[in-house]
Design goal:
This protein has 272 residues and is an all-alpha fold. Helix content is 76%, strand content 3%. Strands 1-2 form a two-stranded antiparallel ribbon. Helix 8 crosses helix 9. The longest helix is centred in the C-terminal third of the chain and has 29 residues. The chain starts with a helix and ends in a 10-residue tail after the last helix.
């Protein structure tokens, strides 16, 4: 726990600082995280860290970030999809290897674009990303502490033996609390014009936690399939970028989908 806390003490200010600044700083940070996630994905699947397919994935991430800055999210997403297809063609191996390359590059590229879209360039985007950080981090911490303290029946023993139902519930409760707290603090910072209702904030936090935990389970299933404990060793006490970013990635992607489908802004933020 001490090692996890020490790593968080370094990473949290970096994440919040870049999200606060937005613009090129945030785009560069998200792009760099995407590159690290792509390389970890390839390592998990036993693919070479340096080859044509790996380079195409990195180039695709760079192109998506650049296009997002100049043109917008649609062009960035299109570039990401095209890069994922080229990765699949460039991969050396059978259909399963090419499909894994397509899936990895496509998912990571789309999540990068989704995260950049959520942030945007205004105060509402800043509030949205801060809210997402708060909910996901609270969910992860609540699940860890509740699971370690209470124990009990396993949530998905075949996928992730350490996760318990108590931990899952603890994560949901912590996320709902964080959502309510941040939702009530954001207007004081001048990022949003009015306070959402407690019910809206609570439901949003619960859904964010559930989606995040599902993302964590999906990544755990991948690691279990390939016989790996962690996606990497970049972050002491936490593992790799995929280990720490799986919940955030799932929640961010779900949030941008919900926002696009609804044709509006996230329900807990209101533009001044």
């Amino acid at each position: 726990m001490g090692l996890r806390a020490a790593s968080a003490a370094v990473l949290v200010p970096v994440a919040l600082g870049t999200a606060y600044l937005g613009g090129p700083v945030f785009i560069a940070a998200v792009g760099a995280a995407g590159v690290l996630a792509w390389l970890e994905w390839r390592r998990l699947l036993g693919r070479p860290p340096v080859d044509v397919a790996a380079a195409i994935g990195i180039a695709g991430l760079a192109a998506a970030c650049a296009l997002f800055t100049v043109v917008g999210a649609v062009a960035a997403a299109a570039a990401g999809g095209a890069a994922a297809l080229v990765v699949a063609v460039a991969e050396r191996g059978g259909l399963r290897v090419r499909a894994a390359g397509l899936a990895g590059a496509g998912i990571i590229l789309l999540i990068v674009v989704a995260t950049l879209t959520l942030r945007g360039d205004d105060a509402t985007g800043r509030a949205t990303v801060f809210w997402l950080f708060a909910v996901v981090w609270a969910s992860d911490t609540g699940a860890y502490l509740a699971g370690r303290t209470l124990g009990g029946p396993r949530l998905a023993p075949r996928i992730s033996p350490a996760k318990t139902w108590a931990g899952a519930v603890g994560g949901v409760v912590a996320a709902a609390g964080a959502s309510i707290l941040l939702g009530w603090l954001m207007p004081l910072a001048g990022w949003v014009a009015e306070r959402p209702t407690l019910a809206v904030l609570a439901v949003a936090g619960v859904l964010g936690s559930i989606v995040g935990q599902l993302g964590d389970l999906v990544e755990s299933a991948l690691k279990r399939r390939v016989g790996a404990d962690d996606s990497g060793r970049l972050i002491p006490g936490h593992g790799g970028i995929l280990d720490r970013g799986d919940s955030f990635a799932a929640a961010a992607f779900a949030l941008i989908l919900a926002t696009v489908i609804s044709g509006g802004q996230p329900p807990w933020t209101y533009s001044p």
